[in-house]
Amino acid sequence: MIESLLIANRGEIARRIIRTAKRLGIRTIAVHSDVDADMPFVLEADEAVCVGPANPAESYRNAEAILAAAKSTGAQAIHPGYGFLSENAQFARTVEANGLVWVGPAADAIAAMGDKINARNLMAAAGVPVAPGSQDPADSAEAALEAAEAIGFPVMVKAAAGGGGMGMAVAADATQLATEFEKVRSFAERMFGDGAVLIERYFPRVRHVEVQILGLADGRVIALSERECSVQRRNQKLVEEAPSPAVSPELRERLLAAAVKAGEAVNYRNAGTVECLLDPATGEFFFLEMNTRLQVEHPITELIHGIDLVEAQLRIASGLPLENEQTGQTGHAIELRINAEDPKRFFPGPGRITTWVEPGGDGVRVDSGYVAGNTVSQNYDSLMAKLIVFGADRDDAIAKVRAAVAGFQIAGPKNNLPFFAELLENPEFLSGDYDTGIVGRMR
């Protein structure tokens, strides 16, 4: 097993990784920006190194500073968490070239899945269902129109190098496509340094379902189960649950088999997620993308399978087998992303936390990045904590998460707890028959 681990991240995911590493007897090293010096993840690590100022480009995305911190502290391995450098293939290569263990998939797999067009083509060749779309990037508005007419309007216009719900727009006709194509291409060049654009069929009513995979040290790929991620704002997830209320045993079998094929197609190692769009009217699903890292919503899979996915990552990176890969599925789990944002329009609302009281009780878990007295900075993502509950079934989990939302006290920054209180009384959500448009219909 790895003996010392540098966590190239911050906030709740850094604390989450530190917790498992300490349980396994691994020495932990945190890196942090100057404004994060007093954050809980810094104080909980065995050692901490400041790698730059608040701007992420100069600290958490500063590969040179992070590698220097690893060398100066004698770290044996680097865990990137999610976001920042976690899906940067060049960083993964550099880590390994410097003799360190990269806790994640091989750089080639990251690169292959990082481009949506290349990923689509790879998946199609492997027999994984993909939505109708362009096989090559649309390099002009004319090429985008040609692709859209072949697919049929409405279409989704996507940044090929995008992720996290960014760089996406819907076009209902040729006029709208011309406008959105230029917007997406400009955004992609600015944000990702790559203006390649993908045109894909748009499904007006669709569910977002994903499968957790693990590429094991012996070369096999296994799939655990699916997660439902359809409660979204601006194409970014707010609520996840497992198992999905839309997935039958027969559909689950097909989803998991496709996810294994996807992992095998790129010789996948470590933890990853195969994201799919599910048409609830037909039961058809289509590959959306593969996230070559640990997902924000991984705790709900942990709870229904009784597995620690961070431990699994560390064991795989160490060349070790899992202690138990035959984990059965029981109960129901729900995760709410507690963000520092306005609960109506979801605009960021950073600030100093004056009150922070986490709920407790049977089946309640809080993975938080903050405590009272900390400041939620505008420099970083608005996620403050993840409220996760486990119940005997979906009704039990909903009852527990309702009580937990009512018991979670936050003052200072804006927060979206009032939105969750509303959602948990919403008939559409309670029925389980909802889709990615549910938040828009509530607003």
From TrEMBL:
Positions of the ATP-grasp domain: 120-318
Biotin carboxylation domain location: 1-443
GO molecular function, one term: ATP binding
Keyword Ligase: yes
Leader sequence segment: none
Entry EC no(s): 6.3.4.14
Keyword Coiled coil: no
Keywords: ATP-binding, Biotin, Ligase, Nucleotide-binding
SUPFAM superfamilies listed in its UniProt record: Glutathione synthetase ATP-binding domain-like, PreATP-grasp domain, Rudiment single hybrid motif
A Pfam family hit: Biotin_carb_C
Protein name: biotin carboxylase
Originating organism: Actinoplanes utahensis
